[in-house]
Amino acid sequence: MFPVILFLFIVVPIIEIGLFIQVGGFLGLWTTLALVLVTAVVGASLVRSQGLQTLMTAQSRMQQGQLPAQQIMEGVLLAVAGVLLLTPAL
User: Fold this and answer.
1) Structural contact between residues 47 and 82, judged by C-beta atoms closer than 8 angstroms
2) I need a surface site. Which of 27, 38, 76, 88 has the fewest CB within 10 A?
3) Helix, strand or coil for residue 77?
4) CA torsion angle 20 21 26 32 (round to 10)
């Protein structure tokens, strides 16, 4: 499993950098940077809204006396998604 993850952490950023260079050559530097920033803002806002919705659902389930196991897992996965949005080249 470790070699696969290591491979992905090496290959995916290289592909992404290559695509940025190609898109930047086609659209121009400022347009490419604007697209990257817009997608980052949209992604962060989606993670935030989904996180708040998951939190509200978990609180509702706890008030009903149920264990919010699915919502806890969703929260963890949303946190990972948020970290990946902030990590360059991932």
Assistant:
1) yes
2) 88
3) helix
4) 40
Output the pTM of the full model.
Answer: 0.71
How many angstroms separate the CA atoms of 77 and 66, rounded? 21
Tokens of 60: 């509702």
Please identify which residue in the block is written with the tokens 């806002």.
Answer: 45
- Per-residue buried b or exposed e for 15-52, using 16+ beta carbons within 10 Å of the residue's own CB: eeeeeeeeebeeeeeeebeeeeeeeeeeeeeebeebbe
At 89, the pLDDT band (50, 70, 90 cuts) reads: low
The tens digit of pLDDT for each residue in 6-18 reads 888 888 888 888 9
DSSP category for residue 41: H
* Distances, alpha carbon 23 to alpha carbons 12, 16, 76, in Å: 16, 10, 33
